[in-house]
Amino acid sequence: MSSASADSTPSVADGYTLHHGYPPVPAYMHLRSASGLSPVTAEQAEHVAKGSWFGCHIVHNDTSTPVAMGRIIGDGGWYFHVADMATLPDHQRKGFGNVILHTLLAKIREKAPPGAYVNLIADKPGWKLYEKHGFQDVAGYQKNPERGMWQVLK
């Protein structure tokens, strides 16, 4: 992961505020579904805060509505997974993904020992953002024989 994005903290657009922590459960659920991520149940969403290492979200000041979010799932030592990167459609193209991801990675750099492993699952619209922050596709990286895999339990 490149440290190029660690040099300067991006600012949040006027009228919005960055908060450390997680949006309330209903807002979390709405952010996921409205931004195109798979919907979750209230029971699933209730576990977000206690199952996360760190998170942050951006609130629209006039409406007090959470409009963007992201979080880190990890052990605090060497393994960290970026999850729930989402921005409501009406608030996209304001750099919120950049602010959220920078904040998440800055917290890892601040707290984790050198050599931390950070991964994520990226959909195509997020590729440029993640590459800007130093992420690389594991498939084919330096003849890497590994590949990412996943499973949704039924």
Automatic annotation (TrEMBL):
Signal peptide: none annotated. It holds the Pfam family Acetyltransf_7. Residues 16-154 form the N-acetyltransferase domain. One of its GO terms (biological process) is UDP-N-acetylglucosamine biosynthetic process. InterPro entries: Acyl_CoA_acyltransferase, GNAT_dom. One of its GO terms (molecular function) is acyltransferase activity, transferring groups other than amino-acyl groups. This is N-acetyltransferase domain-containing protein. It comes from Carpinus fangiana.
